[in-house]
Structure formats: C-alpha cells, structure tokens
Amino acid sequence: MSTETKTKQAADERGFLARLQASPFLSDLLSNRLAVGGIVIILAMVAIAIYARFGALIGIAPDLQTLKTTQLGTNPSLAPPSAAHPFGTDIQARDIFGRVLYGAWLAMKFGTVTVAISTTLGVGLGIVAAYYSDITDNIIMRTMDVLLAFPSLLLALALVAIFPDELGLWRAVTALTLVYTPRFARVVRGAALKVLEDEYIDATVALGAKDPRVLVRHVLPNCLAPITVQSTLNFGLAILDLAALSFLGFGAEAGTPSWGLILSNGVKQGLLTGEWWWSFFPGLLLAITVLGFNLLGDGMRDALDPRMRDAVE
Amino acid sequence: MFESRLRLVGSALAVGLVVGAGGLVFAILALGSVRDASETMFVLGALAFGFGLLGWSGSILAANSVEAMQEHLDAASGWTEQNSRRAMARIGSFGFGVMVGSAVATVALGGV
Amino acid sequence: MVSKRFFLKRLLLLVPVLFGVATLVFAILHLSPGDPAKVIAGQRATAEQVAAVRTELGLNDPIWVQYGRYLFDIVTLNLGDSYIVRKGVPVLTILRARLPVTLELALYGQLLGILFGIPLGVLSAVKQDTITDHLTRVGALTGISVPIYWSGPLLILLFAQFLGLLPASGRIASAYDVPVYTGLITLDSLVYALSGGGFGAFQSAISHMLLPAAVIGVYSMALISRMMRSSMLEVVRQDYMRTARAKGQGAKITIMKHGFRNATIPVITVIGIQFGTLLGGAVLTETVFGIGGIGTLLVNAIEVGDYPLVQGTVLVFAFLFTLVNLGVDLTYSYLDPRIEQ
C-alpha cells in the first residue's frame, strides 16, 4: 500500500472536518486574495444584517415598523446625505440608511431560504438521478436541462404569475427556487456519479448495504464541496434576482425596505429630479454583496478538486 | 427502430391515460367540483405535454451546438440528442395521456 | 456549407417549438389565480356581469374546447385584443409596434458585448495570470455582479444629470417626428436624414441609444469575455497544442492564433443561449430608461392580468429566442465542418 492511500484512509477515518483541513481546498482558497476579499465582504454584510435585525430588538437600530411608515414631520423629506441621515431620506422622509441596513437582513434571509430550498431539492433529484440510472435519471436530468435552457428571469416572471400576490416576497422566493433547483441537481448528479464510480461504493453495494444508507453515508458527504461552491455562486445570483423581481414589482410589498424596492422607487421617483442618493446606496450595497459571493464562489471553484470542477459550471 | 419509438410513446401515453382518469377522481374528492377537477387535471396534463413538446423539438434544434460544446469543454453531463428526445417524448406523451384521460373520464362521469 | 434540406428541417422545427410554448402558456395562465372575466368586467362589476363576460369569453365551455379554440386562434394569428393595458387594441398591432424597440436594444447591446468581449477574453487568455488577466477577470466579475437596474441609473446620473451629455430616457427627443419604416429608430431616422430630413433626428436617436445599449453591452461583454478566456485556455490545453506549447511562450501565442477559430465555436453557442438572458436584461433596461419595448409590455401585462397580451408577448419572446438559436446553430454548422448535415 502506497503512502498516499494510507494518508487518504487515515483522513477518511478522521471525519469530514479533519478531511477538509487536510485537503488542499481550504489552503488553496485562503491563498486566493480575491476569494478572501469575498469572505470579508460577506462577513461584513452578515454583521450589518444581524445588527439591523437584532439591533432593532434591543433598541440600537430602528425597528421594521418605523422603517416602513412615513416619517413626514419628523424628518425632512428628500434630504441629501448628512450626518443625521448618512444616505439621505426618501419622499416619505424615511431614513434611507436604516432602510438599506435592514435591506441587508432581508437579502440575507430570503437569499438563504431560496438557496437552501433549491439546494435540498436539487440534492434530492441529483442523487436519485445518479443512483437510479437509466429512465429515471434520463427523465429527471433532461427535464432539468430543458429548464436550464429557459432564460432565468423570464422563467421566474412566468412562475410569479402562477402564485397569488398575497405571498409578497415569498412569491418571488418560490419562483426562484424552481428556477435554481436544476442547477443544483446537475452539479450533484455529476459529483455523485464520480463518487459512485469509485470502487469503495461498489464494495459497499456488494456487501449488501441498503440504497439510502449508501447514498447518505458515502455519496452525499463526498459531494459536499461542489454543492457548497454552487450554493455560494447562486447565493449572489439569488439576491440579484430577488431584487430584480422586486424592482419589476413582483417582490416585496410596498413599504418593505428591500433593496430592490428602494432602488425601484429611487429610480422611478428620484433619479430625474436629482435625488441620486435614493437609488445609489441600496444599489451599492446590493452590488458589493453580490460581488462578494461571486468572488468567493469563483475562488472556491478554482480550489476544487479538478475532477469535481467539471460539474460546477 | 419505429417499433421501439411506438412502444416508448405508447406506454407513456397509457400511463398518462390511467393517471388522468384516476387523478380526476381524486381531484373531484379534493376540490368538490367535477368542473374544477376536470380543469385542473387537464391543465396539469397540458403543462407536461407542452413541456415535452418544447423539450423534444428544442433538443433536436440545439443538438449540434450542445453536443459539440460539451465535447469542446470536455465536460460531458450525459446529454445526448437521443436520450433527451426520448425523455421528452415520454413526458409529452404522458401529459397528452393525462389530458385525454381526464377529458374522457369527465365525459363519462357526466361532468359536461 | 449549409444544405437546403438541413435548413428546412430546422425551420420546420419551429412549429412544434411554438406549439409547445403555446400549450405551456395556456397551462400557466389557467393555473394562475386571476379570473379574466373579473379583470375585463372591472372591480365594481356585479356577479351577473362577471357571469355574462364568462359566457362571452367561452370560459364555461369544457376546458378541452377552450384549448382547441385557443390553438386555432393562434394558428390563424388571431391573438385577441388587449384587456387593459391598451384596451381594445389587437395584441398583434401592439406587438408589431413594440417588438422593434426591444430588438434594436438587444442588437446594439449584443454587438457591443461581442466587439469588446471577444478581444478582452483573448487578451486575458494570452496574458494568463498576469496583471492584465486579473484586471480583466475582476472587471468581468464586477460586470456580472452589478445589476442592470443599478448600473443604468448610475450612467444616467453621470452622463445625463451631472455631465448633461446624454439624454436620460426615451428613444428620441420629442421635437422629432420621424416616419416609421422599420420601427428601429436609429435606422428610421437615418433613412429620414438621407431623404433630406436633416441629421438632427438621427443624432438624437443615437444619443438616446448609447446608455441603454452600453448597460446591456457591459453585461453581455462580461459573459462573453469569461467564456472566451476559458475556451481559449481549453484549446491550448488540448493534446495537439501541448506539443507546440513545449516550444515556449512565443509558440504559445502562435498556437493561440490558430486556436482562435476553434475557441470561438463554443462562444457562439453561448451567445445564442445567453440571448435569453439578454432579453431578460432588456426587460430591466427598458424599465430603467423608460423605453416602451415588449419587456415593459410583458411586465405591465402580468401586473394587471392582461391575459391576451401576456400570451402574445411570451409567444414572441419564445419565437425570437428560437430564431436566434436557429441562427447560431446554422453559423455553428458552417464553422464546424465535422457536423454532418
């Protein structure tokens, strides 16, 4: 037995966390400056989101109700950025700084939900497709391929039309979940097939292990890396698409401090009359956040085992 | 060749017919109205039928580019024109079966 | 060469594609919670009025009869009249006026994307892992990360509000009344200028087009340059290149020149597939710049539940998308001799 296989075996026995540390993935990733930049951006946004949401509970940040209701009489309307209102105020005299910070919470929350649900669905479909090959595989994967061929924003628009308006942002989340699931299914199937090709799975199957056990114990853990990469890349896209749907009027209900909606109002009501701050700041935070996820995702993909890299587009 | 295609479409169609008719009964129990149930089943069938039809023709249309691109990028995802066409033919025929099955069952139950 | 038979076979495939899309639209609209009869009758209508509209629309017929009638209407190009957005106007008339607007925008955007994206991608690949490569890659990543509905307003702020160089919205200054020939405003105003109407309208049309086209163009450029880079590097990595590469950096560049044609092939496919994304981008761009194309039309129609208009617009989108990919497929078959026809 060569040294290499010995090390691999030892690593296998130490569990996932230890394996991650032993793998070149993490060190590769951390030596990539762009990816580290992405991590810093994401951590900063998470901190902002937590401050806005939980700060409201203990009174160091404005609560959602204050951010939603008009502040005419309390604040000046359409005031440019100042010390009191760093991002200015909107037509209803609401503090844009507070609204944009709370928007970070909404973006993180709904982005997480979208990615989490589509990852779960995608993992299920992808693993089933990889394991029960032939007709099941073919029908699942070719359906995913056709769905992937649809332009994502237009597909999301079509799906949004099916769900009732009362759902608010959840309507957009549901539509986007369906749009994103195929991407995960594809990655997971590709990764799972590579794992299944490995001999030890054959050995386990030969020993008579039941299907679900093989899937959960052996296939899934080995697919975690590509799944994580795909989730990271799609997190940015999810935030972007959610904001786009809000921008077009199919997302958050009026008054909600979501980035897309503030931007939409800022562009439609404030851009041509000179209130640039109204649309500038929500867009800035949105773009930075998405860039953070894209930088990290790209770096993770480069650090991935080349055999798995193919599966992630 | 022709026979195998016929078998593929036929079996999916048969399954669709049964699901369409059976599903209608369930839908009536769930929705309480033959009319609503009939519309729901038919429309769900149409969803699969339209999807299959679009996917089937799209597969042929995009075959060259997709296959060659995979070859170029050396990243085969198992897509071939043939297996895509077959999958879509199954889905489409199934959907059509559901449409016909639910319609026939509606008439049989006197729902028109 | 592309044979006539090959071409006809592809063209014929448009029929099942559109049949499939039409069926999908039928299904989706019937699954959506809105009631067209209520939409038409208006919010204050009584139950009897709504019932009368239902009968008139044939919504009481069995669903398969409705489906058959729907397909028949589409085949005979009877797409109905708009319910709300432009009440009573035939959908076909609305689409005919709005389609060129979006088409023009997408065309210029795509052109900019190709013109800048391909050279940038090649540059990035040739100078792999140098500072030029890193800058180009980060630039492309930023281009994808920045949403159109933010970069658009930024450009408006810079060029229209602060510098006052370019107009912020619309397609042409309202002072000009250019006769409609093609519906493509830059072309129409050029024809108008050449037939003695003066170049003022043409200038105005071009200056209105610059910002929205740039917004779409940057996005498409980012996608294309990324694809071009990886495709070029892939070509270099291939076996027959490996030998040449061993001869040194100079040889690598020579090889890349030869590899260029091979590398463009997958990029062309991506351009076709990304055309749909571009149409999605056009929806957002039109909203930002107040341009009335089919993108804003679709959004309005979905918002108010103008079903015939939604149907018509989606069909047009699907038709365009398929047509572009058909064109891509033909270009592709022309470039890649291995494809049998």
TrEMBL record, chain A:
Subcellular location(s) per record: Cell membrane
One Pfam family recorded for the sequence: BPD_transp_1
GO cellular component terms, A-Z: plasma membrane
Top-rank taxon, per record: Archaea
Alphabetized UniProt keyword annotations: Cell membrane, Membrane, Transmembrane, Transmembrane helix, Transport
Membrane topology: Multi-pass membrane protein
Membrane-crossing segments per the record: 34-54, 110-132, 144-163, 169-185, 235-256, 276-297
Main location: membrane
Transport as UniProt keyword: yes
InterPro entries assigned to the protein according to its UniProt record, in alphabetical order: BP-dependent_transpt_permease, MetI-like, MetI-like_sf
GO BP: any one term: transmembrane transport
Similarity field: Belongs to the binding-protein-dependent transport system permease family.
Protein name per UniProt: Peptide/nickel transport system permease protein
Automatic annotation (TrEMBL), chain B:
Alphabetized InterPro entries for the sequence: DUF7268
Superkingdom classification of source: Archaea
Pfam families the UniProt entry points to: DUF7268
Alphabetized UniProt keyword annotations: Membrane, Transmembrane, Transmembrane helix
Ranges that cross the membrane: 12-34, 40-66, 87-109
Protein name: Uncharacterized protein
Organism: Halogranum rubrum
Upper taxonomic lineage: Archaea, Methanobacteriati, Methanobacteriota, Stenosarchaea group, Halobacteria
TrEMBL record, chain C:
Coiled coil regions in record: none
Domain ABC transmembrane type-1 as annotated: residue spans: 99-332
Compartments, as annotated in UniProt: Cell membrane
Biological-process GO terms, alphabetical: transmembrane transport
Pfam families: BPD_transp_1, BPD_transp_1_N
Record family assignment: Belongs to the binding-protein-dependent transport system permease family.
Protein's name in the database: Peptide/nickel transport system permease protein
Species: Halogranum rubrum
